[in-house]
Amino acid sequence: MRRYGKHTDEDDVRSRPNPKGNRPRSTIRPKHEDAQEGFVLTVDRGRITCLVDDRTITAMKARELGRKGIVVGDRVGIVGDVSGDKDTLARIVRVEERSSVLRRTADDTDPFERVVVANADRLAIVTALADPEPRPRLIDRCLVAAYDAGLEPLLVLTKSDLAPAETLLETYAPLGVPYVVTSHEHFDEAATAAVREHLEGRVTAFVGHSGVGKTTLVNALVERQRATGHVNAVTGRGRHTTTSALALPLKGEQGWVIDTPGVRSFGLAHIDPSRVINAFPDLVPGTEGCPRACSHDEPDCALDAWVADGHAEPARLFSLRRLLATREAKEGD
User: Fold this and answer.
1) Residue 8 DSSP code
2) CA–CA separation, 248 vs 226, rounded Å?
3) Which DSSP letter does residue 231 get?
4) pLDDT, tens digit, for every residue of 314-323?
5) For the residues of 18-67, what is the DSSP string, one character each?
6) Looking at 216-264, which runs of residues are DSSP E strands?
7) Rounded CA gap, 151 and 284, in Å?
8) Is the full-model pTM beyond 0.85?
9) Average pLDDT across the chain, whole number
């Protein structure tokens, strides 16, 4: 039966009310032009501590960011209550483009990569010369990750009063990696000053095996102190005391240090081996004669002839191939 006549208008038509009482969802999202810039200091169970101007605030990720992760070192846009007062909670609505990303996987078969830190300039690889014993393969893996991420590596050798540093330094001399040698895990002013020279004006991520004195060194460089651990006398392994990454300002606020949890493995499943050659600019021209998809560690590699003709040092090619082989070698070797 026809309810309305031929000439009806909007006043004659009854509209069914929205039973949920909400408006249709829009695909238009706010631009948040008034968002304030923040720097992510640490992330803990969904709560993100950020620095906004000179205030430390707590925030959570906005739903509109979806599955996009937020990590220490990120530059973010924040709205809401950014006063930093107790029990206030702001909202992160934007993650700025990252200048660098340091990644790792649990092992070389793990398809899921984990972002360690963002926007770092330098990677400080801390290793003890004894107690626990140095692990060159782990150092190699950290170097590969640094080169892949575009970070400048720094080798920090601790506890030289227990073992000499010369042998390990000879291994990495062809790479030209800057280094600092300290005599004890309790760092005096001279030792910290030598390390600080490489950190000022930069954002530096610290990585290292548990028990090498990494967090003790960080504590000597910054104002805020973190808990430290010890080496197990039976297993020779360090104890994890740093459970989450944390960004801390250098004394004098002339740079940032990001302390990361101690690692016992550094998977490189996400690394494209073809990008490692970019860390060896003196060898790059020699790859022009390489066959397609050359691994630079095969009989037809043009680098052998390039080096034999005197264009580069043989030790440099050996170092490149040692790093490329880290994905096939066990880290404890």
Assistant:
1) -
2) 10
3) B
4) 999 999 999 8
5) -TT--PPP-S-----TTPEEEEEEEEETTEEEEEETTEEEEEEE-GGGTT
6) 246-249, 256-259
7) 18
8) no
9) 84
